[in-house]
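I am writing to request your help with a piece of structural work I have in hand. Thank you for your consideration; the sequence and its tokens are set out here:
=====
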Amino acid sequence: MWRRDDESTESQRERLELVLEGTRLGMWDWNPQTNEVVFDERWAQMLGYRLDEIEFTLESWSSRVHPEDLDACLADIQAHVEGRTDFYENIHRMRHKDGRWIDILDRGRIVARDDGGRPIRFTGTHTDISAQCQAERRARELARSRTQFLARMSHEIRTPLHGMLGVAQLLESTGLTAEQRRLLKILMESGDTLLVLIGDILDFARVDEGALQLAAEPFDVHALVTSVIDLFTPRAHQKGLIFTQAIDLDLELRRHALGDAHRIRQVLSNIVSNAIKFTADGGVKLVAAREGDQIRFEVIDTGSGIKDTERIFQAYEQEDTSEARRQSGAGLGLAIVRRLVERMDGELGVESRPGVGSRFWVQIPAPVCAAPPAVDTPASLRRARMRVLVADDNPINQLVIQTMLANAGHH
């Protein structure tokens, strides 16, 4: 009986050794009371040493951990020792024998305590994840390079595009025939669509990289909702749709909140734009209500509905319908919405029935705050004709701005 048990134990050890050898895990075993530590050969080899070159002390480990990583590592160990975590896990850098730093995934747990509950055996493994960490760093660098490239390209494209749209606006105020106005309208709408597309691509890259900065400033919720209504009402009316709003009494009475009004407006604009785009008959409704320290927005439409509600929040995806195929767009709008809402620690959802319509809802933290002090422009300045210095390195923009200022009575 004893021999069979002994053979079974030996067999288990052999299997464990094969697993550790195959996974290239280094093992350590530490007694927190005596600070006795045992390392295995793979642990030493991971750092470029032979086992006989390593002292079996806690300092053998701590002296090789990167100084910037040591405090966080010790804090994670302490959290597990005190029972605040089920296991210990930390990623830190350790110095290799050849002087370079390698990335280590360190995992362990307490497997024995004395009668007083003090840990007497803390065992775990080391894994060299340098290749993975280097790949992640390269990916982040590539993402930053991509965002910088897109920002430069966005500027290079927007500059002449703004000039083109500015000239088109100036033409609109001249004596044009009905046919010329129709063609000019197409030109301006196409330019606006291109501007939105460029902005979407750049915003998506920024959010994806985590480089987008959010503001936390007082804003007027009622004014924000009204601005979205004013922006999209002409587009809705062009399609024969009714576009309405509903703001609850609490928001009417306590209309100022703390948050990023620009990004909230961007979220609502993307959802409303989609609702109008995919609604042929009926209408679209924008609802706003306060729920504690959060504001809940809903966009309800009587459009074609959505079959796959998860897919539409993915980048470059659109609902696969004949209506969607007729509409332009890169499929980034709702992907940006999802990422912006996540960045604002909010929630996003959709309920939809194909052929009936959809209800998108967004809940965003925006606590009530006092109204910002009003800034009043003196009437004398509002009426004054001013001499304006325009600084712009683009001759087309200079011409457009100069003409617009002249039309407004300025020099």
Notes: The first helix runs from residue 2 to 23. The chain is about 50% helix and 20% strand. Confidence is low (pLDDT under 50) at residues 1-5.
